Amino acid sequence: MSRPIEVLVVGGGLGGLTTALALRQRGLEVTVLEAANELGEVGAGIQTAPNASRILMGLGLLSQMRAIHTQPEDQVRRRWADGSIIASKPLGRAVQEQYGAPYWHYHRADLHRMLLDACLDPERPGAVVRFAVGCRVAELDLTDPARPAALTDGGQRWAADVVVGADGIRSRVRDLVGAPDTLVFSGEMAYRVLIPGKRIADDPATRFLLDRYHSTIWYGPDRHLVHYFIRGGQYLNVVGIVPCSPEIETTWSGSVPVGELVAAYPGWDDRVPAMLSKAEDNVTAWAMSYRRRDPRWVFGRVALLGDACHAMLPYQAQGASQAMEDAAVLAEELGSVTQAGIDGALVRYVARRAKHAGMVQAASLENMRFYHLPDGPEQRARDAALQQFHGESDVSYDWLWRGTPLDDPDVVPFDYEFRR
Ligand SMILES: Cc1cc2nc3c(=O)[nH]c(=O)nc-3n(C[C@H](O)[C@H](O)[C@H](O)COP(=O)(O)OP(=O)(O)OC[C@H]3O[C@@H](n4cnc5c(N)ncnc54)[C@H](O)[C@@H]3O)c2cc1C
């Protein structure tokens, strides 16, 4: 009998952890190398649409997801100037029934912790995932094509049958295998902040936000605003996308005063400054970049995954979700072969995923213009299209939320009786 396949995952973000867990579940031996001294995520919200929720459910995580999720009942689109509702689409139970998996919101740290706990849980199927933190991969040793090795800047050498580069948008692994430089700065930045739900509840001008949980997008010229509650109303997660300031274009990210966030939405409906001014001193701004589509994700026994190969603008909120789809497909492929079949499995991984993720990348980019149209005929046509809710771009919600077909989805039946 051949020995289990060993995989080295570089990067312990949401993509790397989902990959580690999915591979473990299929009987592979996994080690994760993480550059940071501690594993974790930024203080912000994240959503998993049904395509990603289905993967997490397939990993046996439904009860854990239930413990940390917040369920938006509707997706609401508003106009910048007067807050009027352009369109509203039921999410909640309607999505669960149609797609067999929920559309849920989380605190990123909770989602990351859930995956980490599952990777480390000795009671789960497969070998417990090994983690090495403070291990920044600096070089690859590809001398033995069947045993690629990662060399850390601390001088350690880690060899495996397969190396997965899940090291994010500025992937070092990607550079080391000689993949093309596809990184593009979009010219925009994202403000991110968690506003205490209590402050929203205490003001009659913003209390309406707690009447029913929504996922809300406000559309305006050159900018937009997204918000939703996480941790059952403890925080309102806010993402505001605006043209990038010269400061953030230089530093790429940083803390900014609350006043700057409020001032970024001049003339918007009064409820917008009422909401944004409740932020405490924890507003950050991030320059937004993406990668151009590139269908080559595998270089010998080194495979790329997540933002390392398909970093996209967050205009479909799908970056991590697509990484989770990568993880599920890679695990299906590597989990169904022995040593002799590894190369073929990696080829099939890319064949099943690259076009799909590339379409989401392209659609997210298209949305940059679509979201930020100045008032006028194009904006009115866009708003009319939004009312149809087939999707915002060339990819429909239906296609997106059904996800990449899996051979063996392992999905536990969704319990429709569950309520938040
Ligand atoms: C404002 C905003 C909102 C978003 N909202 C959503 C959403 O709602 N839903 C969604 O699905 N996606 C969303 N995304 C996208 C999502 O956050 C990313 O696509 C996703 O987190 C990428 O995961 P990853 O694991 O590929 O990379 P990362 O999360 O970047 O993880 C990479 C990891 O690799 C480590 N690393 C880097 N270099 C090395 C090295 N040399 N050696 C070892 N380790 C290394 C890093 O420290 C990090 O831990 C959003 C993005 C933004 C900016």
What are the defining features of this structure?
420 residues; six-stranded mixed β-sheet; 15 helices; 35% helix; 25% strand; globular; binds flavin-adenine dinucleotide
Give a verbal description of the structure.
It is a single chain. The protein is an alpha/beta fold. Helices cover 35% and strands 25% of the residues. α1 (14-25) runs parallel beside α5 and α12 packs antiparallel against α13 (342-371). Mean pLDDT is 94; it is low at 411-420. The structure holds flavin-adenine dinucleotide.
What is this structure, in a nutshell?
The protein has 15 helices and 19 strands. It has 420 residues and is α/β, with parallel strands linked by helices.
Number of strands: 19
Small ligands present: flavin-adenine dinucleotide
Instruction: Write down the overall mean pLDDT.
Output: 94
Distance between the termini: 47 Å
Please tell me how large the radius of gyration is. Answer: 21 Å
Q: Percent range for helical residues?
A: 25-40%
How are the strands ordered across the major sheet? 5-4-13-14-15-12-17-16
Structural class: alpha/beta
Helices, by number, come to 15
Shape: globular
The biggest sheet amounts to: 8 strands, mixed
Uncertain residue segments: 411-420
Strand content: 25-35%
Topology:
Layout: E1 6-10, H1 14-25, E2 29-34, E3 45-48, H2 50-58, H3 62-68, E4 74-79, E5 85-90, H4 92-99, E6 104-107, H5 108-120, E7 130-133, E8 137-141, E9 149-152, E10 157-159, E11 162-165, H6 172-176, E12 183-196, H7 197-202, E13 214-220, E14 223-230, E15 235-243, H8 246-251, E16 253-255, H9 258-263, H10 271-276, E17 284-291, E18 298-299, E19 302-304, H11 307-310, H12 319-335, H13 342-371, H14 377-388, H15 397-402
Bound molecules: flavin-adenine dinucleotide.
